[in-house]
Amino acid sequence: MSEPPLKYSISFPDRDKLAGEEDEGNSFEIIGKCIGEGRTPVVVLLGWAGCNDRHLSKYSAIYEKEGYITLGFIIPAPVLFFQSYKLHDIAKGLMDVIINNNIADNPIIFHIFSNGGSMVYTSLSALLNSPESPYQGRLCIRGIIVDSAPGKSRVFNAVRAFMSTLSSNFILRYILGLCLLIYLLLNRLVNLLLPLETVLGKGFRVYEKMCLDKTQCPQLFLYSKADTVIMAADVEEVIARRKDQGVDVKSLCWEESAHVAHFRANPELYTKTCLEFAAECFKNNKNSPSLLAGWNKM
Questions:
Q1: Which one of 109, 174, 226, 269 is most buried, counting C-beta atoms within 10 A?
Q2: Burial of 33 by CB count in 10 Å (0-12 exposed, 13-18 middle, 19+ buried)?
Q3: What per-residue confidence (pLDDT) applies to 213?
Q4: Is 194 exposed, middle or buried, given 0-12, 13-18 or 19+ CB atoms closer than 10 A?
Q5: Is residue 219 left, alpha or beta, with left meaning phi > 0 and alpha meaning psi from -120 to 50?
């Protein structure tokens, strides 16, 4: 049985509307100045486990108002938790979506949410950086925004994240959470006893893969000390390791916002932060002063 087609949403800017607002200094002017090739910037949003179109559309709207093309992509939670062996094919499917929509040659930023979005991104990055892959070097990635990720593989955190994706009643949610807990503990035991890593184990190495990502474009990490799913210390360790690798890394840490809830808690600052980072990446002018100078934590 063939796999169902990948679900995604794509939005192209209304150029007539943007042109009418050009005198107000809006994003139509940005499109013309950011890209030497004259191609419209693209933001690819990779949703978290349990995310839906309504959730992701709020983030897409941030970029659509600036005249950017947006591509939203959500992987079903069961794939992330139980079928991570499918991520390679899913990444290939995402590449085909990008190519078939004629945006593969446009400058691209990835906006990644939680470990779920990170798992898709790292699978895609592996395709783009593998000499054996027909997609090697196929995309022009200008920047990466990482919201609430990555986190180390912690069984109880994974169970907590899985349970948050369920809309079932209280009792069923805990029964399913218990089943996942047993499943993950057994998988960890197998990994300890056998010399070869299980397929699930490979899928959950997202933290290490994000640390060692061969894509060297600028990165922006958005995270919180109050996040109970992704530990702030994990994100800060990744930031340090990426900086050691020569990557231009910016970060913004909140004190109280919950997991993938920074935008909801701080919409103005979140929007401003993402748009300034995107504008800087798309301009791609290393000689210009950084819009983000002095950023670190708040």
A1: 109
A2: exposed
A3: 95
A4: exposed
A5: beta
The 10 Å CB-count burial string (b at 16+, else e) for 99-115 is eeeebbebbbbbbbbbb
Q: Rounded to whole angstroms, how far apart are CA atoms 26 and 252? A: 25
Helices (H), the chain: 15-20, 27-34, 53-64, 77-82, 87-100, 114-129, 155-164, 170-193, 199-203, 206-211, 232-244, 262-265, 267-283
C-beta atoms surrounding 4 within 10 Å: 6
- Give CA angle at 48 (45, 52), nearest 5°: 80
Note the pLDDT tens digit of each residue in 185-228: 666 665 656 554 444 444 457 888 999 999 999 999 999 999 98
Backbone angles phi, psi at 69, to 5 degrees: -75, 140
**Interval 161-188: pLDDT, tens:** 655 655 666 676 666 667 666 666 666 6
Looking up tokens 């897409």, which residue turns up? 60
Name the pTM for this structure: 0.77
Q: With CA atoms as reference, report the closest residue to 56 among 76, 69, 33, 73.
A: 73
Angle between helices 267-283 and 53-64 (to 10 degrees): 60
- Report helix, strand or coil for 21: coil
Whether the CB-CB separation of 37 and 282 falls below 8 Å is answered with no
What is the C-alpha to C-alpha distance for residues 278 and 145, in angstroms, rounded to an integer? 9
Give the model confidence (pLDDT) of 62-114 as tens digits.
999 999 999 999 887 777 766 778 899 999 999 999 999 999 999 999 999 99
Contact present, 116 and 75 (Cβ < 8 Å): yes
